[in-house]
């Protein structure tokens, strides 16, 4: 049971520009995943997704600990917007959105012809009710930051108005994740079976497993599959076995270990979705041994990124450059890639008066595969630079209580690889709720506010570049690499989602060649 | 000679003095005492479970929280789950609701009875089938080996039963998976359930059952074999042999009846081991039982769920142990 509760939601999120890579597969792999062939109508897709029976939830606005539940919910209910390939954010239940001049007020238009599965049209009132319900959950403030519940209102039948406490050019991006829309005033007891607006409607759900049927009247266009059967798996290995013995067609988010097993099989597509999960090392910037920017820069020079990707991720990933949000179309590829340079690192450490006699603790968890391994490997790499690093493994709950947001040096992971600004606003601006490195940098804050308040795309990209340069230079994040999201699929499956994070649950374009 | 004078064991089983009613009364009293003792043990066990989870790092509120959840939200949920109250108070609440069938609410707000409604029958089906199979197999193999002590069969059984018992369930499971599913494609590798929550086809039960049965049969065979060996040394079996009765008749009619108490007790203990094994086997075969619920609940520090699973398992084991006691009592009667 090497799969963990937090993985799903947060191994989830986000988007990024991504090219689909099929590492191996059968003869018709070239036609797979939207790269060709004429979609065929019909068939039942059997898909496996990870989940734990103890964590089952049916509430679209609850804590979805299970990937399987999230998948079912995302197929039945639409979010306002969704991750896109070329544009970071594309419409889903909202067909368009427009900001006010000062970027604080946003008007979303509900897509024409959008109806619930029982045939009733979707109104702005339904959306407002759903967003308020979401906002009022325990994690609501983090899910819709800067938007108070009573600042979500309806204007006419099809316009939803969101007023942010501050200028926020990225507000539509925030509505991509869990803004599932239900009918107004759906009682809590009926939530599980409530009609949604998504491409599939629920046939039955039982203990994490479900059968979904095509919604022929979906506002988003034609849906190819007749039905989707979701099977929940407790372990990635059991899921991979089920795929290899032909019991399921897709093993969703199966992970690197399962991919390695499947790589030997010619009849299985290994679908890699790059930029899926960040696994940074976090250094406390406000005190302790890493408060000196020189020390942090040195640590970033000590890590052997290629070795990390090769050993920790089994090669299923890419080297990163200490900037979070690698999947963002505006990610600054012009900033030079940091490489290992022990000589320069030693000089920086000496200049900073770094204490080489001490042993530094690096706290980690086993929440996601490879996380603890990344700490161990880094510790051995640091030893080559003369720094003694001791890895301390903590149980997940303890970690989030004692170390996260507080520790001097720890590992962490983010599946919500949304955008550069997403990470900046959540984890790096002064006083942000999840400022993991307790970082406060005037220039960075200024750059951030400039980005948010800049409407023009060109000027905005320039401002974003400045922000990323500062993050690269001084932040408390050592981001050595990005793990791929990995799905396994039978050869007959085509049109699988190509996006990292939450993009993976959009199965309306999938079709079967059989 | 006929058996009547040469079967002291049988004579002991039916003490002439004890009338039927008196025996029934004694049995009932004895049963009540045993039941009381077992209930007290269950109470202690559940208290230990509550205390143990309390000692684990983290609690249900933090374990089931979302990353974005603030300290205030966490504190509110802690209050909602009653985690701000002392552990003995929560235990008292939970245990007093138990007799009425109330198993409490999980950390995620589900009723525990709902959580266990589907997986429990599945586990009982899996464990029950494995139990019946292991008993039949152990008896057959044990009797077979006892037919010719120190013969080839006996020695092979001796070796393989030890090996079988030494094999952990996950090793057996992986071996079965490789051979019966991934290489030959004969059986489905994982369990897929239908709308009713039960495995879609019976063939999905074969490997999980086998994975549980093989190690247990190793254990039970040794018990059967040892019990029969003990009986073989008793005077009445010796006498039967001298009488020239057939080996089969001696084993079945003379040795086995006396061996029952030892066999029943030994096999009853394998109930616990079978239930323990389901945690592993269910995960490997994606079998939807309480083993997986338990594993998840431990990760969640979800005390009511863990305690409920423990209580269910304990109840099952208690029933089987009581049955074993009954067999002992019937066989040994006043002798015990």
UniProtKB/TrEMBL annotation, chain A:
GO terms for biological process, alphabetical: peptide transport
Pfam families: SBP_bac_5 (PF00496)
GO molecular function, one term: peptide transmembrane transporter activity
GO CC list: ATP-binding cassette (ABC) transporter complex; periplasmic space
Domain Solute-binding protein family: 90-433
InterPro entries according to UniProt: Peptide/Ni-bd, SBP_5, SBP_5_dom, TAT_signal
Record's protein name: ABC transporter substrate-binding protein
Organism: Streptomyces caniferus
Gene assigned in the entry: gsiB_2
Automatic annotation (TrEMBL), chain B:
Record key words, sorted: Cell membrane, Membrane, Transmembrane, Transmembrane helix, Transport
Signal sequence extent: none
Classification via CDD domains: TM_PBP2 (cd06261)
Keyword Cell inner membrane applies: no
Record bears the keyword Transmembrane: yes
Location of this chain's protein in the cell: Cell membrane
GO CC terms: plasma membrane
Broad class of where this protein is predominantly found: membrane
Parts of the chain that traverse the membrane: 39-57, 124-145, 165-186, 198-215, 259-285, 305-327
One BP term from GO: transmembrane transport
InterPro entries, per database record: MetI-like, MetI-like_sf
Membership in a protein family: Belongs to the binding-protein-dependent transport system permease family.
Protein name as it appears in the record: Metal transporter
Record organism: Streptomyces caniferus
């Amino acid at each position: 049971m090497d799969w963990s509760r937090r993985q799903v939601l947060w191994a989830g999120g986000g988007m990024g520009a991504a090219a689909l890579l099929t590492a191996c597969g059968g003869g018709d792999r070239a036609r797979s995943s939207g790269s060709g062939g004429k979609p065929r109508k019909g068939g039942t897709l059997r898909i496996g997704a990870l989940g734990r029976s103890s964590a089952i939830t049916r509430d679209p606005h609850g804590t979805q600990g299970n990937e399987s539940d999230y998948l079912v919910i995302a197929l039945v209910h639409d979010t306002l917007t969704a991750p896109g390939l070329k544009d970071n954010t594309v419409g889903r239940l909202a067909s368009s959105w427009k900001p006010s001049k000062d970027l604080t007020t946003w008007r979303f238009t509900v897509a024409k012809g959008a109806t619930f599965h029982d045939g009733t049209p979707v109104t702005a009132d339904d959306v407002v009710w759903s967003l308020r319900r979401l906002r009022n959950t325990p994690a609501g403030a983090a899910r819709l930051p800067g938007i108070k519940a009573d600042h979500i209102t309806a204007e006419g039948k099809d316009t939803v108005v969101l007023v942010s406490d501050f200028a926020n050019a990225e507000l539509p991006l925030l509505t991509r994740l869990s803004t599932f829309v239900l009918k107004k005033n759906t009682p809590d007891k009926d939530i599980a079976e409530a009609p949604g607006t998504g491409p599939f409607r629920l046939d039955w759900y039982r203990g994490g497993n479900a059968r979904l049927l095509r919604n022929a009247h979906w506002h988003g266009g034609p849906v190819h599959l007749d039905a989707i059967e979701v099977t929940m798996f407790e372990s990635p290995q059991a899921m991979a076995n089920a795929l290899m013995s032909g019991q399921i067609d897709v093993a969703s988010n199966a992970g690197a270990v399962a991919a390695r097993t499947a790589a030997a099989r010619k009849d299985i597509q290994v679908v890699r979705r790059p930029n899926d999960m960040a696994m940074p090392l976090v250094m406390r910037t406000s005190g302790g041994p890493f408060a000196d920017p020189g020390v942090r820069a040195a640590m970033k020079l000590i890590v052997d990124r290629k070795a990390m990707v090769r050993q920790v991720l089994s090669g299923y990933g890419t080297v990163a450059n200490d900037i979070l949000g690698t999947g963002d179309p505006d990610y600054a590829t012009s900033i030079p890639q940091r490489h290992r340079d022990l000589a320069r690192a030693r000089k920086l450490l000496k200049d900073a008066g770094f204490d080489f006699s001490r042993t530094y603790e690096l706290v980690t968890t086993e929440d996601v595969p490879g996380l603890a391994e990344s700490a161990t490997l880094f510790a051995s790499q640091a030893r080559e630079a003369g720094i003694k690093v001791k890895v301390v493994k903590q149980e997940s709950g303890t970690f989030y209580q004692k170390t996260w947001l507080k520790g001097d040096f720890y590992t962490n992971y983010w599946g919500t690889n949304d955008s550069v600004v997403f990470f900046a606003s959540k984890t790096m601006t002064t006083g942000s709720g999840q400022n993991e490195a307790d970082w406060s940098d005037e220039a960075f804050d200024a750059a951030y506010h400039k980005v948010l308040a800049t409407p023009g795309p060109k000027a905005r990209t320039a401002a974003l570049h400045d922000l990323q340069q500062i993050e690269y230079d001084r932040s408390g994040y050592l981001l050595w690499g990005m793990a791929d999201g990995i799905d396994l699929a039978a050869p007959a499956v085509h049109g699988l989602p190509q996006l990292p994070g939450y993009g993976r649950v959009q199965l309306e374009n999938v079709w079967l060649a059989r | 000679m006929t058996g009547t004078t040469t079967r002291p064991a049988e004579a002991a089983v039916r003490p002439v003095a004890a009338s039927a009613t008196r025996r029934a009364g004694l049995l009932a009293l004895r049963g009540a005492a045993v039941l009381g003792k077992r209930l007290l043990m269950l109470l202690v066990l559940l208290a230990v479970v509550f205390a143990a989870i309390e000692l684990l790092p983290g609690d249900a509120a933090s374990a089931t929280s979302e990353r974005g959840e603030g300290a205030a939200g966490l504190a509110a949920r802690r209050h909602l789950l009653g985690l701000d109250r002392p552990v003995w108070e929560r235990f008292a609440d939970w245990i007093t609701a138990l007799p009425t069938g109330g198993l409490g609410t999980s950390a995620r707000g589900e009723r525990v009875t709902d959580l266990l409604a589907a997986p429990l029958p599945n586990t009982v089906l899996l464990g029950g089938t494995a139990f019946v199979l292991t008993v039949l197999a152990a008896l057959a193999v044990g009797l077979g080996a006892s037919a010719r002590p120190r013969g080839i069969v006996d020695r092979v059984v001796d070796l393989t039963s030890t090996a079988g018992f030494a094999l952990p369930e996950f090793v057996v499971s992986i071996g079965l998976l490789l051979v019966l599913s991934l290489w030959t494609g004969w059986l489905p590798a994982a369990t897929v359930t239908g709308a009713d929550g039960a495995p879609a086809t019976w063939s999905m039960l074969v490997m999980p059952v086998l994975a549980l049965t093989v190690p247990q049969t190793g254990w039970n065979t040794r018990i059967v074999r040892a019990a029969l060996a003990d009986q073989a040394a008793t005077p009445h079996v010796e006498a039967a042999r001298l009488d020239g009765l057939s080996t089969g008749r001696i084993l079945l009619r003379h040795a086995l009846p006396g061996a029952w108490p030892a066999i029943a007790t030994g096999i009853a203990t394998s109930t616990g081991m079978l239930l323990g094994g389901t945690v592993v086997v269910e995960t490997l075969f994606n079998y939807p039982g309480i083993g997986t619920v338990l594993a998840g609940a431990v990760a969640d520090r979800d005390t009511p769920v863990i305690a409920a699973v423990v209580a269910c398992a304990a109840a099952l084991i208690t029933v089987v142990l009581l049955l074993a006691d009954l067999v002992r009592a019937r066989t040994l009667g006043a002798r015990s």
